[in-house]
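cron nightly-structures :: item 1 of 1
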Amino acid sequence: MAPRRNSSGFVGVRARPSGTFYAEIRAGGARLTLGTFATVEQAARAYDAAAWRLRRPRQQLNFKDCASLEEAEFLAGFDNLVTTEQRRRRQQLQRRLAIAQADERAMEARAAAFPQDVLDERAFYAQKKAERRAAKEAIRARKRFIEAQEVGPTTIDENDERWADLVLTEPSESSGSNFDFSDF
């Protein structure tokens, strides 16, 4: 049996009193709203795209010239149709957001309950960051020193102010540093 066509002339499309057109499709006993559209053709194209997704026969389409789902969706000009994969991904993102918000609330509760622990933790990580920064700077200084030596003694003489910087920042052998600079 062919689907009923209503006053709009298209399957699944109804005219609204405001002059717009409402599209819907029935699937598994449920009515799926496709939206409200400015023209009757847009609403009919949206119905066709949904019908293709639901694997309806061509006899139930408004425009029988569509050869594929991709073409029907392109002609509909929108992607309001949510696939199972899109719905799964959205739910996954919502769960992750809920977990992140719960983590933030737990951290706030911990900070309120144990303020000294939070301060100690921040100080610890600030110290570690300063140590890493100092170690990187020592490596850079050693590299500058080595590069200066490779260029040769004629480039930097005793009166050059860069020489004083290199000598002052060079790690000493007696500092107990076990870092091997020979790879540089």
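cron nightly-structures :: done
The beta strands are 13-15, 21-27, 30-37.
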